[in-house]
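pinging the channel bc i need a second pair of eyes. not urgent but kinda urgent?? the chain im working w is below, pasted from the shared doc
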Amino acid sequence: MSKVIRRRIVLHSGLAIGVALLAPAASACEFFGVNLRVTHPWTRATAEGATTAQVNLKFDQVTQADRLIGVETPVAEAAEVAGAETDAGVDVSIPAGETTLLGEGGAIVRLVGLKMPLELGRSYPMKLVFEKGGVIDATLNVDYTSFRFR
């Protein structure tokens, strides 16, 4: 192989690596439904004997208004909106064109009847049930307490 060809291959390889480094990073904790994107469902680690945990997540890229009507995970018996005056359960409005936060800075959805302590660094399966958008299979991560949405 000639010196010019080797130089061209090295130049093209370097250019490809540079472009890859400049491209925006995709979030590993994004889940997409028909009408919206769910970003990073998480909770804090719980102590032995804890019975509840707060779910934190963000809905954005909402193209059609919807309602979150259920949260299911094998680590808890049920989920509810904290402080709800009606029957226990989940019913959170998600307006079109807006970002909706659950947890810090928004409505509080909590898991009740925890079946085990939630340990830092672990992840658990979770289903988010929407009135119009159906079911999104997601992962609930147990993160550090200082995590904030950007």
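so The two ends are 49 Å apart (CA to CA). and Residues 3-22 form the longest helix (20 residues). — does that match what u expected or am i reading it wrong
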